[in-house]
Write a structure and sequence with these properties.
Helix content is 63%, strand content 9%. With 694 residues, it is of the alpha+beta class. Helix 3 crosses helix 9 and helix 17 runs antiparallel to helix 18.
């Protein structure tokens, strides 16, 4: 019954209905510009990543009441080595007057703030009320920058502050989806052309994966309407998952379809058999990835939690398109779309006893223990790169290209305490305690100044100027002692927030997410493998190989980031994201391999089943791995350090799983362990025929 449902898309009427339904749906989606609305719904503010009970989140809500809404400060820094001249000061006064008359969208006038003790720099301050609309923040920041930014005769002027950082982040993410999709789609086009060597066949999976991408963004927009937080990073990862996984599923289905076309004339029957055979493997593979991604939904960080359902939607959309639209189009199309290698009846198919993958298996079988021990040593050496791991990447170091907000922060740090760019905020509920809190926090080593900035129903708002730059690990390390001092003087309801506190809370939440999600993903994937392989031993072995592969990939990724790109550390969420993707996607290829090996074992025994399974799946799985690695590697072209690191690490890990783990390590372990790998199923008790020549 289940396999009959899988074969439904090839029915004589169903195939046409499915194709028409997909095209009508795409027309409707574009008519309402839903993909554009999905992009507009992205929220890239770091404060939106946190759960509602985080202290910095609660401080932000209280601060809104004191400042009539969420305010993003604009800081204009004027800096000249050797000191500001009289002409510089005259220009500053002129700029302030011009900005106040010409720039719209600010919530308070521009005013001259602090002047450095050595007169080398001055700050002009204002703020913008955050409405959630990108243009409401971008327009005034761009207007200010058009008016004042740049270098002129030794005077450097830059616009920074929370509003400056937000504007630069919005600009980075504004074009990121289009750039990423175009680059990934182009790469997939080239890879499919090389794999199929047909100018016609490649358009079918490309069209199907393109439709799947649009469908995933449509459903994703529905999630944002339900309150799910989506940022530019999760949106980018969504595109990679759909393109990579969708193309993989297409490769598996088309490979089986091509084989069946060599056995019979009927395209309909060939696709029906292909769906019944490859369909369950695709569903099992996609289901494993979906289950692993949904584990992210339990994360404390909203940005991590949202990637769970968003990523799961992407994988589900890819599966749906490849199991409905793709087979329907292929059955409608004539055989010549495979030109120049049109499959003809009687020309044979995959050979389980010959070919390069069979030869690799035979060589491994001669000394499997030596092979798997040697492979493990190689992986352990690769994992040695973890000694270089440093989670010191922060917001200010997160851009690969120069951005004005970071340049402005660097100018400020030359003449002022670094925290002047984005003060830490303290909400003191009882105004009578404000003086005591100020005095206590001022005593914390690393605090430059404390000043009251507002009073209202929630209490008194204090700005704390930290000595280090606000988006640095040194500033984050000051948040706990500042909180301790503030609560001791003002009571437990005293809240500490602001940019540095938000970043600190994000890092702390990420640590908790790792402790919860990593073991949960391992457990979920293990249980799925137990059901699929009807064994306990094999799933344990497969999980172990993928985990060591992940450690090796992360080690190499860290080494590349350090030695090749000289990045200022790794994003704290890199290990978690890389783990989920590599374990889920790495298990995919082991599922494709071991499901076939088990099928062959029933007839030929474990040793021969392993060799035959490797021989018939080697080519298509390798092609799928190259495509998936290529799509993740496209993330490296984006101007964000985290996405570059993630793309490199996952791409290398996928190739490692494809060429080393699935092709050598797993076969060697299976051959060495023998039938016991299927314990406790009945296959574990089967007697094996001795290998040839023994």
């Amino acid at each position: 019954m289940f396999k009959s449902v899988l074969a439904f898309p090839v029915g004589s009427k169903a195939r046409w209905l499915i194709v028409v339904a997909w095209f009508v749906a795409m027309f409707a989606i574009f008519s309402f510009n839903i993909p554009g609305k999905f992009a507009d719904a992205e929220n890239n503010e770091s404060s939106s990543y946190l759960p509602a009970d985080a202290e910095s989140t609660r401080a932000l809500e209280e601060a809104k009441l004191l400042t009539d809404g969420e305010q993003a400060g604009i800081v204009i820094v004027y800096s000249r080595e050797g000191g500001l001249t009289g002409a510089d000061r005259k220009r500053i006064r002129s700029d302030v007057a011009t900005l106040n008359s010409d720039v719209e969208g600010t919530s308070e006038p521009f005013t001259l703030g602090e002047v450095a003790e050595d007169s080398s720099a001055a700050l002009v301050l204002s703020s913008i009320e955050s409405t959630g609309e990108a243009d409401d923040l971008l327009d005034p920041v761009d207007a200010v920058r058009d008016q004042v930014s740049g270098s002129d005769g030794g005077l450097d002027v830059a616009v920074t502050g929370a509003a400056g950082y937000s504007a630069d982040s919005i600009k980075v993410f504004e074009g990121i989806n289009g750039t990423l999709f175009a680059a990934a789609f182009s790469l997939v086009f080239i890879l499919l052309l090389l794999i199929y060597r047909s100018p016609f066949l490649l358009w079918f999976p490309l069209l199907a994966v393109g439709f799947a991408e649009i469908l995933s963004r449509t459903v994703g927009f529905g999630l944002t309407e339900m309150g799910v937080t989506v940022n530019g990073q999760s949106s980018s990862i969504l595109s990679v998952l759909v393109l990579g996984a969708g193309t993989d599923y297409a490769l598996l289905l088309i490979s089986r379809y091509r084989e069946e076309l060599r056995h019979q004339e009927s395209k309909t029957e060939s696709m029906r058999i292909s769906l019944r055979s490859a369909g369950p493997a695709i569903l099992a593979s996609g289901g494993t990835v979906i289950a692993a991604l949904l584990c992210l939904s339990l994360a404390e960080l909203n940005s991590t939690a949202s990637l769970g359902p968003i990523g799961a939607i992407g994988i589900a959309s890819a599966m749906f398109a490849m199991l409905t639209l793709l087979p329907a189009m292929l059955v409608i199309a004539p055989r010549w779309v495979f030109w120049p290698k049109v499959p003809k009846v009687g020309t044979g198919g995959a050979d389980a006893e010959h070919g390069p993958w069979r030869r690799l298996g035979d060589r491994t079988a001669r000394s499997p223990r030596r092979v798997w021990v040697g492979t493990l040593v190689v992986l352990v050496v690769m994992a040695g790169g973890l000694a270089l791991y440093d989670d010191g990447l922060t917001s200010s170091g997160g851009f690969r290209d120069k951005v004005e907000a970071v340049e402005g922060e660097q100018l400020i740090s030359k003449s002022f305490p670094g925290g002047a760019n984005a003060p830490t905020e303290i909400i003191v509920p009882d105004p009578a305690d404000a003086a005591a809190v100020s005095a206590a926090v001022r005593e914390v080593d690393g605090v430059a100044a404390v000043r009251p900035v507002g009073e209202g129903e929630p209490g008194v708002l204090l700005d704390v100027i930290l000595e280090p730059e606000p988006y640095s690990t040194e500033a984050f390390a000051l948040i706990p002692p500042v909180r301790d001092a503030a609560k001791e003087a003002g009571g437990p309801e005293t809240l500490v927030g602001g940019g540095s506190a938000v970043e600190y809370d994000i890092r702390e939440a990420n640590k908790q997410d790792v402790k919860l999600i990593v073991p949960l993903v391992i457990l979920v994937v293990f249980l799925i493998l137990v059901v699929l392989l009807r064994s306990l031993a094999a799933p344990l072995i497969l999980i172990g190989t993928v985990v060591i592969s992940f450690l090796a990939a992360l080690g190499v990724g860290v080494a590349i980031s350090e030695w090749v790109f000289d990045f200022p550390g790794s994003d704290p969420s890199l290990p978690l994201f890389a783990f989920v993707f590599l374990v889920a996607l790495g298990i995919d290829y082991n599922i494709f391999l071991m499901a076939r090996v088990r099928e062959e074992t029933v007839t030929h025994g474990t040793r021969e089943g392993m060799l035959r399974g490797l021989a018939v799946t080697g080519g298509v799985i390798t092609s799928a791995g190259i495509v998936l690695a290529g799509t993740f590697l496209v993330l490296a072209v984006l101007p964000l350090v985290f996405l570059t690191e993630l793309g490199i690490t996952v791409a290398f890990g996928v190739l490692l799983d494809t060429f080393l783990v699935r092709s050598i390590l797993v076969p060697a372990l299976t051959l060495d362990i023998g039938p016991k790998i299927w314990w406790p199923s009945s296959l574990a008790d089967r007697e094996e025929e001795p290998p040839p020549g023994s």
